[in-house]
Write a structure and sequence with these properties.
single chain; alpha/beta; Aspartate Aminotransferase, domain 2; Aspartate Aminotransferase, domain 1; 7-stranded mixed β-sheet; 4-stranded antiparallel β-sheet; 15 strands; binds pyridoxal-5'-phosphate
Length: 430
């Protein structure tokens, strides 16, 4: 109860989070959470799956439509599990090879090797669970994106089996076409981890990996795509479908959290209906918040590119080290004022001697505040509140009262079916 109360009175800015609609919630808290349905729809290993199959079929139909593709597997129970399906399909059982973005540049721990170059054990998922040898692509700190020429060289020299795009710090579309062509020269598959940007892609903004050369795209279903916590994998490669299916079940899954499949069906329907408007506003708000913070003297990265083309912005707060501290310190101060956001490693932090516990950056996302109905004016209000805390060093307890007052107007979830019945009406046609 305390948690719920706190989050109704806060400004939620974590880029990997979002909130679900009442219709999605009804599907998720249902009898489906008591049931099992191993296998593919129509080929189950359990009885009692009549309606579960119908719902999963609908969920796959909607997901294929949203991402314009011929294969959607909605069984992976999270983004990491969807990545494991992809690793199973595309890398060797022993000494597999993958190229991806470095974790300190915004890559995800699920892409990581077991050991860092230094020999230190870091237990990245790809290395630890699948024994994959990981070579990092080159990154251009000034553009906050992969360096195409230098990365092409890495791919030609390392000859990976899988080239993986995507990450958790993700401001600009990755060069899927350019580097995907190089990957194909060396016989590698191309994967795209859309955990963060799936909603932006489905609604037609950002980039379109399946058209740009990606063989598969994996995702979490709860970041810019505002569904329940779950995962999915999509592809347009007819010849890979059987393999991809088997690499999910039986290779990795038993039960696949049927209540979340039901919730996901509704969330994807909502995005087919409201996603164009929602995700345009998410991106506009991210740019507006970047501009508003920048004008107030806060060093938002990538001003020369309009700060971002996604739902997130990255802020360099190293100039405040002497006055109020670094990312970890600032995260705590803002949390006391009910502004919830994440510290984040900057691409140059490690080189400059900073650590992920207290890095030089913050990552700020606009998916959830947009869903609560906030727009450009509110981005200015939020920038002002952050300025009061970071630059003017105002007492967080005082600012918290302002945050609670500010949030009172924004209690309803937008861009969704307002009642479960509206959702069911829509789904009837599938
Ligand atoms: C969040 C994230 C994941 C993990 O997703 P889960 O659904 O939490 O398992 C994977 N890859 C990237 C790039 C992410 O940002």
């Amino acid at each position: 109860m305390k948690h719920h109360d706190w989050f109704k009175k806060s400004i939620p800015l974590i880029a990997s989070e979002n909130i679900t609609s009442p219709a999605v919630d009804e599907a998720c808290v249902s009898d489906f959470s008591h049931r099992y349905a191993e296998g593919w729809s129509g080929e189950r290993v359990y009885a009692g799956c009549t309606f579960i199959d119908q719902i999963e079929d609908i969920c796959m139909d909607l997901t294929r439509e949203y991402f314009n593709c011929i294969h959607a597997d909605v069984r992976p129970v999270s983004g990491v599990v969807a990545n494991l399906v992809m690793y199973n399909a595309f890398t060797s059982d022993n000494n597999g090879k993958m190229c991806c973005m470095a974790i300190v540049r915004g890559g995800h721990i699920s892409h990581g090797p077991r050991f860092a170059k230094s020999g230190r054990e870091i237990f990245g998922t790809a290395g630890t669970t699948r024994g994959i040898n990981v070579e990092y692509l080159a990154f251009d700190n000034d553009e906050m994106n992969l360096d195409i020429d230098a990365s092409a060289k890495v791919i030609r020299e390392f000859e990976p089996e899988l080239l993986l795009f995507g990450g958790s710090v993700f401001l600009f579309p990755h060069p899927v076409k350019e580097l995907g062509d190089v990957a194909k020269e060396v016989g590698a598959y191309v994967g795209y981890d859309a955990a963060h940007v799936a909603g932006l892609i489905g609604s037609g903004y950002f980039q379109d990996p399946l058209r740009e050369g990606a063989d598969v795209m994996t995702m979490s279903t709860h970041k810019t795509l505002p569904g329940p916590q779950h995962g999915a994998l999509v592809s347009n490669r007819e010849d890979l479908i059987d393999k991809l299916r088997s690499c999910a079940f039986p290779a990795l899954l038993s039960n696949h959290h049927l209540h979340n499949v039901a919730g996901l069906a509704i969330a994807v329907a909502e995005m087919l209906e409201f996603g164009k408007e929602y995700h345009k506003n998410v991106i506009d708000n991210a740019k507006a918040l970047g501009q508003a913070l920048y004008e107030r003297g806060i060093n938002v990265l990538m001003e020369h590119k309009g700060f971002t083309e996604s739902h997130q912005i990255v802020v360099d707060i190293t100039e405040f080290e002497k006055t109020i501290g670094l990312g970890g310190d600032i995260e705590k101060i803002l949390e006391k004022a009910n502004i919830i956001l994440n510290r984040n490693l900057l691409p140059y932090d490690i080189a400059q001697g900073r650590h992920y516990q207290n890095p030089g950056g913050l990552r700020i996302g606009t998916s959830e505040i947009t869903r609560l109905g906030m727009g450009k004016n509110e981005m200015t209000d939020i920038a002002e509140l952050i300025k009061k805390l970071i630059i003017e060093k105002k007492d967080p307890k005082k600012i918290r009262d302002e945050v609670i007052e500010f949030r009172k107007e924004f209690q309803e979830i937008k861009y969704c079916f307002q009642t479960p019945n509206k959702a069911y009406e829509y789904l009837k046609f599938y």
